[in-house]
Amino acid sequence: TSFCTEQGDGRMIEEILQGIKESDNIEIADYDSTGIENMLELYAGADAIVATRFHAMILGLIFAKKILPISYNEKMFHTLMDAGYTGRILNLSDLASFDCMDIESQMSLLDYDKLRQMRAEAEGHFIFLDHVLGHQEKVSGRGDK
Hints:
The chain has 6 helices and 3 strands. By secondary structure, it is mainly α. A 3-stranded parallel β-sheet has the order 1-2-3, with helices on one face.
């Protein structure tokens, strides 16, 4: 999928496809023309995801798909490390030397128990935020609007 045409996602997709022998069974979708609902359906039905965008990686993890993350910044790398991801993480700068012929063996899943734990922790963050915002509303709701 392409999330950001302006930043060269289409070019990156073409570069990746050039290195794959049998690319006939690979579906490419552009976020702008596909829309969010269809994109989510594509992710849910995908066998595997090569993620060059942070959101693509997160959706791959959420839908418990095999992923091959191509990290372009430390945010993606650190998120994967925090999540306990043990698969290969490609650096964008190393893409030219990457052998795409055996791409599936390079992909990995996140441990499902770890994913469940992360989801529970994320929900806890929202509970804390709700508490903080609720507290602020009570403080500022004294009629001094």
